[in-house]
Design goal:
alpha/beta; globular
């Protein structure tokens, strides 16, 4: 992959307008600099279509039960990678912005969709430069080898991705806005509420085409 790819530009515009209005205190101006920086760390020459997207199991950090392994496993954050390894499972894809157990992602035999944005631009290079197979994702129009997925948190971006890749069934393990496992502050709680709204949006878009299960 050499140029930038945008999954559904109109949906991205709607979603971005939504979360920037709700969280104006975050550094969204830095997203443009992050989009310039991120492609320099891209070392993925493949195509996302090489993965089997028919059934997708998305694992989020609050997960408490072992997920099914009869489809593509997507881990949200390095913390979920560790949980999967403890269960003897390995993800095919990890979606992360390197702020929750990032060291677990470094030696993962998987494709890492490393998200670059205004709030992680200072430490993004530290981890992105060490990932074996990295496809950067960004929050504004891509400048080079990177992917723009509608969404705001790693979790809802994973669901959007599976939906746009044509998944017939998406199983979401561990999404629980009332259980905060990384930190518990006003911004984090607001992010989880935004994620909840966006996941519900995908649920509505998917009706009749994709079965989405919250487990």
């Amino acid at each position: 992959m050499h140029g930038g790819i945008v999954l559904d530009p109109m949906e991205w515009l709607i979603v971005r307008s939504y979360y920037t209005a709700l969280l104006p205190q975050l550094n969204f101006e830095g997203d443009y600099l992050a989009a310039e920086l991120a492609p320099s760390f891209c070392n993925y020459d493949g195509d996302l279509k090489e993965f089997k997207w028919d059934i997708v199991n998305i694992v989020m950090p609050p997960i408490e039960i072992k997920p099914s392994d009869d489809g593509l496993l997507i881990a949200v954050e390095g913390y979920s990678v560790k949980l999967l390894h403890d269960w003897g499972l390995s993800p095919g894809i990890v979606i992360t912005d390197f702020d929750f157990n990032p060291e677990e992602v470094i030696n993962c035999d998987c494709l890492v969709l490393g998200h670059a944005h205004g709030d992680n631009i200072n430490y993004y290079p530290k981890y992105a430069s060490r990932v074996r197979k990295l496809l950067p994702t960004v929050q504004v129009w891509p400048r080079g080898c990177s992917l723009l997925i509608p969404g705001f948190t790693d979790g809802d971006r994973a669901i959007y991705l599976a939906y746009y890749m044509g998944a017939r069934e998406i199983r979401i393990y561990g999404f629980n806005p009332s259980k905060v496992v990384k930190r518990n502050d006003e911004i984090k709680r607001a992010k989880l509420e935004i994620a909840k709204a966006l996941i519900n949006r995908v649920l509505q878009k998917a009706k009749g085409n994709t079965v989405i299960k919250l487990l």
